[in-house]
Amino acid sequence: MPRTLRPGQRSELYVVDIATGDRRLVHSSSTLLFEAPNWTPDGQLIVNGDGRLFRLGTGELEEIELGGVPAINNDHVVSPDGTTVYVSADDGHLYAVPLSGGPGRRVTNDRGPGFHHYLHGVSPDGKTLAYIGLEQVDARRIANVWTIPAAGGADVQVTNDEHADDGSEYSPDGKWIYFNSERASTEPGHAQLFRISVSTGEVEQLTFDERVNWFPHPAPDGSVIAYVSFPSGTLGHPADVDDVRLRLLSPGGEIRELGTLFGGQGTMNVPSWSPDSLSFAYVAYPV
């Protein structure tokens, strides 16, 4: 079921300037819980809500026709050329939807009823999707990084372990896939940021602090990584958490905080940078 707002709660879409830290409210709603902003190459913002997809038009949200695709969740990305949005549907599959309208196309293969695909990234050339494959094995939920051709084809498993991996997203040069994982923790509730080489499978850890770090989003120019940081001990990426922090990570490992909000799930699940790398979008859920 799609998430809904609590009594007295709002969805607030902001754009933050990374040079100054100033944030600008661009849309708010007391009726629709919207999530996970993307940018199109021409500078439009896209969000999901109530199983549907919207673009921010002249001050209002305008629904994007999904072309027969089932209800979607908050994992969606826009192709580099701006013609297609790839979405994760509640039936567990990924679909390609023309932004100009038209029928949706299922991308993913049938890997059994216990396997679900959650999309987070598309390669810079637009040819490959990076997703999290979540499968139920006995009583365990196992999440690994996978890729699949955007045109459809064979899946490739990138990580193969029982650590909780999520947020798989390509670097601007296509050489790395960034993700968050529990692999450096001795107990659940301490996810950190990592990246894995597409060519060699080498894994590098990027953050090492006491907070729980999720959803690394490299800027299009590769200058910095934006991510959300939860309080220590947080399991998964829950909604309606106090003290969720927006952070930037430099190539040298320096961390800069841009603000604190009430939110978490839906705040910044997917690529949310502006095309010029000068700002990124996020959603807060104040009560």
Describe the structure.
Strand 19 (212-218) and strand 20 (225-230) form a beta hairpin. This protein has a four-stranded antiparallel β-sheet, with no helix packed on it. Strands 7-8-9-10 form a four-stranded antiparallel β-sheet, with no helix packed on it. Strands 11-12-13-14 form a four-stranded antiparallel β-sheet, with no helix packed on it. The chain is built from no helices and 23 strands. It starts with 10 loop residues before the first strand and ends with a strand. It is globular. Helix content is 0%, strand content 49%. The chain has 287 residues and is mainly beta. InterPro entries: 6-blade_b-propeller_TolB-like (IPR011042), WD40 (IPR011659). This is Biopolymer transporter Tol.
Describe the largest sheet: 4 strands, antiparallel
Spans of at least 5 consecutive residues with low confidence: none
* Percent of sequence in beta strands: over 45%
> How many beta strands in the DSSP annotation?
23
For the largest beta sheet, what order do the strands appear in spatially? 3-4-5-6
Helical content (DSSP H or I, runs of 4+): under 10%
Distance between the termini: 21 Å
Q: H/E element string? A: EEEEEEEEEEEEEEEEEEEEEEE
- Give the CATH topology: Neuraminidase
The CATH architecture is 6 Propeller
- What is the level 1 CATH name? Mainly Beta
Q: CATH homologous superfamily, by name? A: TolB, C-terminal domain
